[in-house]
Amino acid sequence: MIGARGFGAGRGGRHVGFAIGAALVGLVVLAALVSFVWTPFPPLAIDIAARLEGPTAAHWLGTDHFGRDTLSMIMLGARNALAVGLAAIFIGMALGVTLGLTAAMRRGLIEDLVMRATDLTFAFPVVLTAVLIAALAGPGGVNAIIAVGIFNIAVFARLARGAALQVLGRPFVLAAQAIGKGPWRIAVGHVLPNIQGVLIVQATVQFAVAILAEAGLSYLGLGVQPPTPSWGRMLNEAQTFMFIAPGQAIFPGLAIALAVLGLNLLGDGLRDLLDPRLRVWRMG
Question: Which of 96, 190, 251, 281 is the most buried (most CB within 10 A)?
Answer without folding.
Answer: 96
